[in-house]
Amino acid sequence: xxxxxxxxxxxxxxxxxxxxxxxxxxxxxxxxxxxxxxxxxxxxxxxxxxxxxxxxxxxxxxxxxxxxxxxxxxxxxxxxxxxxxxxxxxxxxxxxxxxxxxxxxxxxxxxxxxxxxxxxxxxxxxxxxxxxxxxxxxxxxxxxxxxxxxxxxxxxxxxxxxxxxxxxxxxxxxxxxxxxxxxxxxxxxxxxxxxxxxxxxxxxxxxxxxxxxxxxxxxxxxxxxxxxxxxxxxxxxxxxxxxxxxxxxxxxxxxxxxxxxxxxxxxxxxxxxxxxxxxxxxxxxxxxxxxxxxxxxxxxxxxxxxxxxxxxxxxxxxxxxxxxxxxxxxxxxxxxxxxxxxx
Length: 343
What we know:
single chain, 15 strands, 11 helices, globular
């Protein structure tokens, strides 16, 4: 039996309402060479029963418990034999022809390991969506941002980012990834559980010499915040901890330790800001994140050495925090191309 060309894998956790709303668009616009699979992370909302009754054509993988984004996808993908995977959020509406431009590009460019489409807001489709927009980047301190989204500022999509471009990371909300490269880079790191795990994966893909692209000719619409709301201490903890893990695992010692001191200061400033705003639990979550990484630093550094350290790009060589909060540069287009390079 020939290997499947493409597996569109939706990881579900208590997302029955999203599956009922958005799975029809995925099935409607699914090419003949692709299979739609739903992997369930131990849902308690009768998602599996709902799928069996209403979408019998969808392949189901019952994982039995919640392994998070990383553990859930790792287990589901190991059960799926395909040339390419699409890791697709359940709260995503896809458009006609969303798959073909990316698969065509990846077929012609074997050096590309992962891609993302243009991510627009489901509720305001004229604007980019927070989780990925038109491709992800980081600055030299490790802070992520996107073409079309810098921190909380979302740009209106006026075609300004319609060109295919190499990016630093592709969003985990809708990531196309070559299966061979996914496993060669070590799959998703289950220490992350959820949040920024896709940035870590893309960084490791770059460490094995691969490229990450955004192909804006493919368009999808994302609801966002479907699992954890924005103001949630658990999400705050994961974001701060995982961002520090990202650096600890992927930078050589000569780059990481000087950077660590700066990041600890900046994260403490963030904790104090949360406190002054009355978000006490978020402030505590930042400190918990810092101590969590520091406590396991030796083990984290050792695990990061499994792949060779290499210079990776494109990285913004300035501080996106300073540009955004001090200089009020809120659009990606306001950042000078000459300030992007390798890290």
